[in-house]
Protein 1
Amino acid sequence: MGKYVYSFGEGQADGNNTMRELLGGKGMNLADMTSIGLPVPPGFTLTTEVCKAFYANERQYPQEVINQVKEAMSLLEKRMNKRFGDADNPLLVSIRSGAPASMPGMMDTVLNLGLNDQTIEGVIKQSNDPRFAYDSYRRFIQMYSNVVMGMDTDILEHLLEQKKSSRGITQDTDLSADDLKELVAEFKKSCKETLRRNFPDDPTEQLWGAISAVFGSWMNPRAVTYRKLNNIPAHWGTAVNVQAMVFGNMGDDCATGVAFTRDPSTGENYFYGEYLVNAQGEDVVAGIRTPQPINRAKYQEGDLPAMEDVMPENYQELVKIRDLLEKHYRDMQDIEFTIEKGKLYMLQTRTGKRTAHAAIRIAVDMVGENLISEQEAVLRVSPDQLDQLLHPSLDPQAEKNVIARGLPASPGAASGQVIFSADEAEEMARLKKDVILVRVETSPEDIHGMHAARGILTARGGMTSHAAVVARGMGKCCVSGCGAINIDYEKQQFTTTNGLVVKKGEYITLDGSAGEVLLGDVPKIEPEVSGDFAVLMAWADKFRRLKVRTNADTPYDSGVAREFGAEGIGLCRTEHMFFEGDRIQTVREMILANDLAGRKRALDKILPMQKGDFLGIFRVMKGFPVTIRLLDPPLHEFLPQNDDDVSELAHAVGMRFSEVKSHVEKLHEFNPMLGHRGCRLAITYPEVYDMQVQAIMEAACELIRDEKFEIVPEIMIPLVAHVNELRILRENAVKVADAVCARYGVKVNYLIGTMIELPRAALTADAIAEEADFFSFGTNDLTQTTYGLSRDDAGNFLPDYVERGVLKRDPFVALDQRGVGELVRLGFDRGRSTRPDLKVGICGEHGGEPSSVIFCHKIGLDYVSCSPYRVPVARLAAAHAAILEK
Ligand code: PEP
Ligand code: MG
């Protein structure tokens, strides 16, 4: 018989801190906190195995589960010295989800469970506070009827409003015990009328109803979306925690709060948190009341009294717990606590979500505090998250018109059009529009809109509100709790305290680091890579084996990449240089030329331009390898697309319109990506590659001769499918290169290699390697040709594939390891089989995507190459790969 239910309480726990998969994060930490002696209300956890059984058995439970819950309930009664369903001394419980990975707010919760018309008497007696008792009761019915019975929340909410207006009051807190008692009866009646079912009075029935609802919420749409966005597998399931209720809303010696052991936004080492006197947990997170700070560390004028001053003893106890938790978990924790009649209880601890900025600072600080090693510090920062830091901030020189201030909930800066609904934000983003989602507060229902938006602005809610927590996790900039704006959803506009009206569609800018809202699209600047970031990256570099290069075509981009730590260029796409300024006219002249002599005339004009580009790039990349790819795209990409452009070109080159037009038509291809491109062009027109090789070698020779440069140009021939293509083109290239060297009297150690971007090339890599000094896997084309999936058209339908789970991820984003990756592995092995010293890298977009980088490490490539901004991401991912391998 398996164990399905794990109890905790009174310093003892069945579970321990290795059982995340089974008990979920919350259940594991409740067990662990109990074991280390923290004041945790006792309870028990139904494991993720129960969740699996629940779904496998049409939402029924095996008898063993039912028996074990019964036993755990008896133990809980004993520990609390109360009885579930007892009219005299009743036990009330909370039912909460807790998956192995944190999914904040995505699943359901039921509080105050166990209340009915008999047990309420006991609660009144225990609390000596009928108002509190009936308020708990009516909250329970509202929550349970919605979460478990599926009733629309508006119906009971409406009755509540009616009651208030009939009493001439506006605040819930002004309702009397009698009002609330009446409401309880009205709520139950309304349930019966709406659902044609009685609200259950039997506590055991309530319990199983709530447990099933929480397990059921694992598959609700917002949880499904959240899992998809965060790569959490559906088969994990959630655990369910049943725990004795403690109340933060029993009077002014009660409170509830959430805190982070360090600042989750900046990483600064100070105790950061918010609390509310006389409130239930949900009140803090939901942003209904503005919370008060727990201490005076960052006190600002206008802040409400701090817990440090209001409840000094509880605060000191909390500080001790904070230190204990940090030493125990050796990481920043996100905690929830409640104070019931002066006694502090810990409701939760978990590893706190943090911005990338904070993640780095905390990791570096903790090494300094001897809490973790350098390797652990490197592993603490996820490469995906790093991306956030590489985002822009406001240009300090720019003119700024600050129209409102709120909380700096998640750093970075973003501009976009104001949109008030999540659905619309998603729609606009699909149309490639930048939007700022503006809401009074956000809820888990808004998650898709938050994902689509550039930034998020909310009028209500603190630093731990839903908007703040989710935005930080997504690496999006967010200003929350901006009370200075008044949102009118009906009119689709918001008004600032100065009376400025901002309508839907107008541009605003958010500065999530300063908590400012600015009018218009304010210029931004690129991030700096120094301080803690540089320290952490230096550690990463110490541990990684893979080299990281960049894909860059200009000296400027090469410079950015060097700043980010690129160790050379893995792909310089020379065709991009053909579009610079008015060069395109010369290129067109070359394409339109009727004979070799005409083509050579045009190529002679292009030669010095390309040589100039190479000189610039070589200088920036001094001492590092530079791989230059010869012309790759089909020629028609350089030709005019419409008649106006054709006639302009005809005029410029002195040809007739019809002549140019027919030339353009002749170059039309049905399937250009599989057409006359890459090395196939050079088989027909060898003079094009000859010119490019000459430009590369002249630039190299001049630098070696005049500036005493050490330089090894790597000349790369694209789209090779058959070794004979490479053999011919290599011979040509060597002839040109050697002639240049001889002319300059300089020796250059150049390499000639190829891209592996067609399945045939991978399959015959052993033969191809005999003609190549290096391989670079072009996984963009290799994905396209392996999948038979057009990289230019797949955007129309691939999202459906991911949405419906046909594919887990877009294969153009994350390397398809099973298919395309297999060809990379095979091509690599076959290449090395005939040429053991073959240099091998990857230069498709995957070179900067963490899971793909880890794959490249595992199969043994020498380097990855990616866009300049992703270089740090790749460096960190490469370090993770190397550390985790050990
Ligand atoms: C590739 O195909 O992976 C590649 C890097 O080349 P391009 O994207 O220019 O086709
Ligand atoms: Mg390619």
Protein 2
Amino acid sequence: MFRDLERIEREFEAGLASAAGDPGAIEAVRVRFLGRKGEMQALLRRFASLPPAEKPAAGKALNALKTRIETAVAEASAAAAAVRRRAEIAAGGLDVGLPARTPWRGSLHPVTRTRRELERIFRDLGYTVESGPEVEDDFHNFQALNLPPNHPARDATDTFYVEGGLLLRTHTSPVQIRTMQARRPPIRMVCPGRVYRRDLDATHLPMFHQLEALVVDEGISMADLKGTIDALWKRFFGDDVRIRFRPGYFPFVEPGCEYDVSCRVCGGRGCRACKGTGWLELGGAGMVHPAVFEAVGIDAERYTGFAFGLGIDRIAMVRHGIDDLRLLMENDIRFLARFPA
Ligand code: PHE
């Protein structure tokens, strides 16, 4: 055993010396001595069958040689690499004066950025951020929102149905229901997320993003709703924004309304973005209908609440001056690169 160790060491020294400076030859030496079918492995196998009394000394010698070989190989490769680098520089193959290739830097998608900005404002106002499933059941998407099976307002949303009586949620309002089922008032929450409708043109996509706010507590009134919407958009767009409320119908609120903000493109004088009206429609709102409270077991005599929704993609378009909704979904790098982090 010990004689073999000496022999291997001699052969290794000789082999490595003749391989010096040549990375391929050094690798061949490494394989010959350290490889799976190499000299050291063969010795290790023999070591296993030594009489126990000889094992400690032999093991120590084996390990020492193995470490020695490993270190020497590593040093020889590093030296070879350094030599090669110096040769390349000397030959002019490496021009350290060239400008560096800057790596690609990703940035947040305008929709993600807008969503986060809105979430931040709501968090500052003390809201929690909730989420719910995109594949919903009829109860949460419709029935609990005061849209019974034959309600005419169901026609207003073109629904994607999936197997098992489920559907792709047509709005974020089912998360209102899930939150009220899970928690008791006071509730102050927003739920951003994807929603789906069977639509496709320059201003409608089959998948888009909504964000919805719900507040339930004792003594909540329409004044709280108006004040909150006002505060939200002043924070988001700036203090000069004007808000307007118009009557609107959604079965799950009463009274219900729609709200607009003064056009951010023309300042309210009228332009293409606002179709000459001076106003941008942002979403629906209203006071939670008592039938909704009943569906989730909240006492409508004691509690009142408001809810409102908005389209995140629309807001991102207004914010960034984007004129075609489809641009937001095509993931064209030339478009996205216009929004560096
Ligand atoms: N869910 C309604 C929609 O998608 C928006 C809305 C939310 C209206 C909350 C009123 C209250 O159109």
